[in-house]
Design a protein that fits this description.
Length: 198
């Protein structure tokens, strides 16, 4: 009798284990990169600037990782299960900022020394939803400092509407917002450090 009860328990455990470990349909994960969208043409500097800047830390808020996120309201952000970035958002923003600062604005890139340093936190890199409208939103919080003082700080946020609701157009809208935010931040940074250089 006892062996029958034990056998029944073992059989029930094995069968329930099979149900839990059976193969589910695999997720169809899709990867996207906003860098495939070209930034708007910027004015190229005529000459290299004499002002130098060092790029410090470019980081992302904790919820901004590989999964693409969407904002449904001012207080709710969710992740897509199967839509991912090929890299983290801070890597895209770091390259976009370097392009805006050193290629478009002509600042000299410093690698060391007691020079102004730019730290940036990516606080939004997301699909924005407003009713039926879809778009991209990027927000960058920045601080310029030297070895002793914070010279300037602020936040730049840009939003751009997608041409339709497809994820491809949403990614394109995030890319446009990223380039616009990088460009505006680069202008603010250049003006700030030129003031302190005088």
């Amino acid at each position: 009798m006892r062996w029958a009860a034990v056998s029944a328990t073992v059989l029930a455990t094995v069968l329930s284990g099979c149900a839990l470990t059976s193969r589910a349909a695999p997720l169809n994960v899709r990867y996207f990169s906003p860098e495939d969208v070209e930034p708007a043409a910027a004015l190229r500097p005529i000459a290299q600037s004499t002002v130098a800047l060092r790029i410090g830390h470019v980081t992302s808020s904790a919820y901004l990782r590989s999964r693409i996120v969407h904002r449904d309201s001012d207080v709710e952000v969710s992740e897509y299960e199967t839509l991912r970035w090929t890299e983290s958002p801070d890597a895209y923003v770091a390259r976009s900022l370097r392009h805006a600062l050193f290629d478009d604005r002509g600042l000299r890139q410093a690698l060391g020394g007691s020079l102004p340093t730019l730290d940036v936190e990516v606080t939004a890199f997301e699909e924005s939803r407003r009713g039926a409208r879809r778009g991209g939103r990027v927000e960058l919080r920045y601080e310029i400092h030297d070895d002793q003082f914070v010279l300037a700080s602020g936040t730049v946020a840009k939003e751009h509407d997608a041409t339709d609701g497809s994820i491809e157009q949403v990614v394109a809208a995030i890319a446009v917002a990223m380039h616009a935010a990088s460009s505006e931040l680069a202008t603010s940074v250049a003006e700030s450090i030129e003031r302190f250089a005088r």
